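Q: Hi! First time doing this. I have a protein sequence and I read that you can turn it into a structure. Is that right? Here it is:
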Amino acid sequence: MAKAKKGKAARSPFTKGRVTSGSSGTQFLGVKDGESMTFAPLLGLDELDSARMHEYWEVRPAVFHPCIGMDCPGCAVGNEARFKGYLPVLQRGGEVGIYAFTISIYNQLEELEDSLKEDDPKDSLKGVQIRVSRKGTGLTTRYTVTANGKRVKLDDAEVPDFIEQLGPTDIADINAMLERAGIAAADDDSETSDDSEDSEDDGDWGDDID
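A: Yes, that's right. Below is the predicted 3D structure, encoded as structure tokens:
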């Protein structure tokens, strides 16, 4: 694979906060077809980390990295960069993980948070019990995002450092990763599919939101 000219992105490829138009061992969460997952965000969307990500699911293990713009090796091999949001969340058992999601889920999360802000402009999804359900695979995948009307006590749950786990941001490092994975051409139209467990009944978790 021909290497792109060495250099660095002028700024971070990650975006902090709401989307506008125009530590080791962190668990990344997803939802399987026919299943659902319940969690409480540790942050509101104004603190969300997101990026346009190149993901290569045709290799095992899969590799990924953010799109760095000019001279991006992912763009050079024809891999389409797609929006990905990363929300630190508290799960029912008390474990902290990172929920990785697409733009369609982001839009539903934004609607939920906007509805809370109608009553209190300072409110956010932080601590709100949220259920994400999935049906279908590939192009037929449909997600449903709902707030369960409860707010969870986050106690001392800490947001883990996870940005470095989302792949390299330097041209030379990205090229080296792609070469190790044997990637020289694009063949990426698969959906993200991370393991997750079935949700249990959520009625006994969290306090009712006034």
